[in-house]
Amino acid sequence: MVQPTLTPSGAALTPQFCFSTTTLRDFLRVSRSSIDDTITQNLNALVTPSRAGFDPSSTTQRSPRPLSRQIDPSACQEFKDQVLFPSWQARSQVLSYCALVATSPDPDDPEAAIREAEKQKDRERVVNERLDPYSARFFPREPRTEQLASVIRMEQGVENIIRTRTWGIVGERCGSDGRTWEQALGEWRRDKHLPLA
Predict the structure, then answer these.
(1) What digits encode the pLDDT tens for the residues 73-113?
(2) Helical residues (DSSP H) of the chain, grouped into ranges
(3) What distance in Å separates the CA atoms of residue 189 and residue 90, rounded to the nearest whole number?
(4) Distance from C-alpha of 83 to C-alpha of 87, rounded to nearest angstrom
(5) What is the pTM of this model?
(6) For tag attachment on the chain, is the N or C end more exposed, with fewer CB atoms within 10 Å?
(7) Mutual orientation of helices 181-192 and 144-174 as an angle, nearest 10°?
(8) Contact 118, 161 (CB under 8 A)
(9) pLDDT at residue 61, as a whole number
Protein backbone atom coordinates (compact mmCIF):
# COMPACT_ATOMS: atom_id res chain seq x y z
CA MET A 1 0.00 0.00 0.00
CA VAL A 2 1.15 3.56 -0.75
CA GLN A 3 2.43 5.59 2.19
CA PRO A 4 0.83 8.94 3.10
CA THR A 5 2.57 11.98 1.64
CA LEU A 6 2.50 15.73 2.29
CA THR A 7 1.35 18.44 -0.09
CA PRO A 8 3.37 21.67 -0.42
CA SER A 9 0.90 23.28 2.00
CA GLY A 10 1.66 20.58 4.59
CA ALA A 11 -1.64 18.71 4.30
CA ALA A 12 -1.35 14.93 4.45
CA LEU A 13 -2.52 12.86 1.50
CA THR A 14 -3.59 9.37 2.48
CA PRO A 15 -5.06 6.44 0.56
CA GLN A 16 -8.30 6.97 2.53
CA PHE A 17 -8.54 10.48 1.05
CA CYS A 18 -8.29 9.02 -2.45
CA PHE A 19 -10.73 6.16 -1.83
CA SER A 20 -13.26 8.66 -0.54
CA THR A 21 -14.07 9.77 -4.06
CA THR A 22 -16.66 12.25 -2.77
CA THR A 23 -13.95 14.03 -0.75
CA LEU A 24 -11.52 13.86 -3.66
CA ARG A 25 -14.05 15.33 -6.08
CA ASP A 26 -15.07 18.00 -3.56
CA PHE A 27 -11.44 19.10 -3.23
CA LEU A 28 -11.08 19.32 -7.02
CA ARG A 29 -14.42 21.12 -7.40
CA VAL A 30 -13.62 23.75 -4.76
CA SER A 31 -10.12 24.31 -6.12
CA ARG A 32 -11.39 24.66 -9.68
CA SER A 33 -14.25 26.96 -8.70
CA SER A 34 -12.00 29.32 -6.74
CA ILE A 35 -9.46 29.78 -9.55
CA ASP A 36 -10.37 28.38 -12.96
CA ASP A 37 -14.15 28.87 -12.98
CA THR A 38 -13.72 32.51 -11.93
CA ILE A 39 -10.65 33.26 -14.05
CA THR A 40 -12.24 36.28 -15.74
CA GLN A 41 -13.17 37.84 -12.38
CA ASN A 42 -9.71 37.05 -10.99
CA LEU A 43 -8.05 38.72 -13.98
CA ASN A 44 -10.42 41.71 -13.83
CA ALA A 45 -9.26 42.27 -10.26
CA LEU A 46 -5.73 42.76 -11.61
CA VAL A 47 -6.70 45.74 -13.77
CA THR A 48 -5.39 48.86 -12.06
CA PRO A 49 -8.07 51.54 -11.68
CA SER A 50 -7.48 55.00 -13.04
CA ARG A 51 -4.83 56.95 -11.15
CA ALA A 52 -5.92 60.35 -12.44
CA GLY A 53 -9.14 60.54 -10.43
CA PHE A 54 -12.68 60.88 -11.67
CA ASP A 55 -13.17 62.48 -15.08
CA PRO A 56 -16.79 63.68 -15.61
CA SER A 57 -16.41 63.36 -19.37
CA SER A 58 -15.85 59.63 -18.91
CA THR A 59 -19.59 59.19 -18.43
CA THR A 60 -20.49 60.69 -21.80
CA GLN A 61 -21.55 58.46 -24.64
CA ARG A 62 -18.61 57.20 -26.65
CA SER A 63 -17.60 54.10 -28.47
CA PRO A 64 -17.61 51.00 -26.29
CA ARG A 65 -14.23 49.94 -25.06
CA PRO A 66 -12.99 46.48 -25.80
CA LEU A 67 -14.03 43.87 -23.27
CA SER A 68 -10.69 42.12 -23.12
CA ARG A 69 -8.41 44.80 -21.71
CA GLN A 70 -4.74 43.95 -21.53
CA ILE A 71 -3.45 43.58 -18.00
CA ASP A 72 -0.10 44.77 -16.72
CA PRO A 73 2.38 41.98 -17.57
CA SER A 74 3.99 42.00 -14.12
CA ALA A 75 0.57 41.66 -12.43
CA CYS A 76 -0.25 38.78 -14.78
CA GLN A 77 3.02 37.02 -14.06
CA GLU A 78 2.55 37.45 -10.33
CA PHE A 79 -0.98 36.02 -10.59
CA LYS A 80 0.29 33.01 -12.53
CA ASP A 81 3.22 32.43 -10.17
CA GLN A 82 1.40 33.04 -6.88
CA VAL A 83 -2.16 31.84 -7.58
CA LEU A 84 -2.74 29.91 -10.80
CA PHE A 85 0.26 27.58 -10.96
CA PRO A 86 0.25 26.71 -7.23
CA SER A 87 -3.42 25.75 -7.53
CA TRP A 88 -2.70 23.60 -10.58
CA GLN A 89 0.30 22.05 -8.82
CA ALA A 90 -1.77 21.11 -5.78
CA ARG A 91 -4.39 19.43 -7.96
CA SER A 92 -1.71 17.68 -10.02
CA GLN A 93 -0.07 16.39 -6.88
CA VAL A 94 -3.37 15.03 -5.53
CA LEU A 95 -4.26 13.38 -8.84
CA SER A 96 -0.76 11.87 -9.19
CA TYR A 97 -0.80 10.51 -5.65
CA CYS A 98 -4.29 9.05 -6.07
CA ALA A 99 -3.28 7.50 -9.41
CA LEU A 100 -0.40 5.82 -7.57
CA VAL A 101 -2.83 4.58 -4.92
CA ALA A 102 -5.13 3.25 -7.64
CA THR A 103 -2.32 1.19 -9.20
CA SER A 104 -1.02 -0.20 -5.89
CA PRO A 105 -2.22 -3.35 -4.16
CA ASP A 106 -4.99 -2.69 -1.64
CA PRO A 107 -4.71 -5.04 1.36
CA ASP A 108 -7.34 -3.00 3.25
CA ASP A 109 -10.11 -3.40 0.66
CA PRO A 110 -13.27 -3.96 2.71
CA GLU A 111 -15.06 -5.68 -0.17
CA ALA A 112 -12.32 -8.18 -1.06
CA ALA A 113 -13.99 -11.00 0.87
CA ILE A 114 -17.37 -10.25 -0.71
CA ARG A 115 -15.88 -10.27 -4.22
CA GLU A 116 -14.11 -13.56 -3.53
CA ALA A 117 -17.37 -15.12 -2.29
CA GLU A 118 -19.14 -13.88 -5.43
CA LYS A 119 -16.43 -15.38 -7.64
CA GLN A 120 -16.70 -18.72 -5.84
CA LYS A 121 -20.48 -18.68 -6.17
CA ASP A 122 -20.12 -17.91 -9.90
CA ARG A 123 -17.78 -20.88 -10.38
CA GLU A 124 -20.41 -23.16 -8.85
CA ARG A 125 -23.26 -21.72 -10.91
CA VAL A 126 -24.84 -24.06 -13.43
CA VAL A 127 -25.43 -22.24 -16.67
CA ASN A 128 -28.15 -23.52 -18.96
CA GLU A 129 -28.76 -20.85 -21.56
CA ARG A 130 -31.64 -22.82 -23.08
CA LEU A 131 -33.62 -22.50 -19.87
CA ASP A 132 -32.45 -19.03 -18.91
CA PRO A 133 -30.62 -16.98 -21.55
CA TYR A 134 -29.51 -14.51 -18.87
CA SER A 135 -28.02 -17.11 -16.52
CA ALA A 136 -24.52 -16.59 -17.90
CA ARG A 137 -24.55 -12.97 -16.80
CA PHE A 138 -22.31 -12.26 -13.91
CA PHE A 139 -21.31 -8.77 -12.94
CA PRO A 140 -18.56 -9.00 -10.33
CA ARG A 141 -17.94 -6.07 -8.06
CA GLU A 142 -15.11 -3.89 -9.22
CA PRO A 143 -12.23 -3.50 -6.74
CA ARG A 144 -12.05 -0.05 -5.26
CA THR A 145 -8.63 0.49 -6.85
CA GLU A 146 -10.22 0.05 -10.29
CA GLN A 147 -13.08 2.38 -9.32
CA LEU A 148 -10.53 4.96 -8.17
CA ALA A 149 -8.49 4.55 -11.37
CA SER A 150 -11.63 5.27 -13.40
CA VAL A 151 -12.38 8.40 -11.35
CA ILE A 152 -8.78 9.60 -11.69
CA ARG A 153 -8.79 9.11 -15.48
CA MET A 154 -12.01 11.09 -15.76
CA GLU A 155 -10.77 13.89 -13.46
CA GLN A 156 -7.47 14.14 -15.36
CA GLY A 157 -9.46 14.63 -18.56
CA VAL A 158 -11.57 17.33 -16.90
CA GLU A 159 -8.40 18.96 -15.56
CA ASN A 160 -6.89 19.09 -19.05
CA ILE A 161 -10.01 20.73 -20.49
CA ILE A 162 -10.24 23.27 -17.66
CA ARG A 163 -6.56 24.19 -17.85
CA THR A 164 -6.72 24.63 -21.64
CA ARG A 165 -9.74 26.92 -21.26
CA THR A 166 -8.18 28.89 -18.41
CA TRP A 167 -4.86 29.27 -20.22
CA GLY A 168 -6.70 30.57 -23.30
CA ILE A 169 -8.39 33.28 -21.24
CA VAL A 170 -5.10 34.16 -19.50
CA GLY A 171 -3.45 34.39 -22.93
CA GLU A 172 -6.19 36.74 -24.21
CA ARG A 173 -6.03 39.04 -21.21
CA CYS A 174 -2.32 38.92 -20.39
CA GLY A 175 -0.92 38.46 -23.85
CA SER A 176 0.15 35.07 -25.09
CA ASP A 177 3.80 34.17 -25.25
CA GLY A 178 3.10 31.16 -27.47
CA ARG A 179 3.59 28.53 -24.77
CA THR A 180 1.01 25.92 -23.92
CA TRP A 181 -0.16 25.62 -20.34
CA GLU A 182 1.88 22.42 -20.03
CA GLN A 183 5.07 24.25 -21.05
CA ALA A 184 4.39 27.22 -18.77
CA LEU A 185 3.57 25.00 -15.78
CA GLY A 186 6.63 22.85 -16.47
CA GLU A 187 8.89 25.91 -16.50
CA TRP A 188 7.31 27.18 -13.27
CA ARG A 189 7.92 23.78 -11.65
CA ARG A 190 11.56 23.81 -12.77
CA ASP A 191 12.01 27.33 -11.37
CA LYS A 192 10.49 26.21 -8.05
CA HIS A 193 12.44 22.91 -8.12
CA LEU A 194 9.22 20.91 -7.96
CA PRO A 195 8.77 17.43 -9.44
CA LEU A 196 7.46 17.44 -13.00
CA ALA A 197 4.22 15.56 -12.26
Answers:
(1) 899 999 999 999 999 999 999 999 999 999 887 767 666 56
(2) 15-19, 21-34, 39-44, 73-79, 85-102, 112-124, 144-174, 181-192
(3) 12
(4) 6
(5) 0.73
(6) N
(7) 100
(8) no
(9) 58
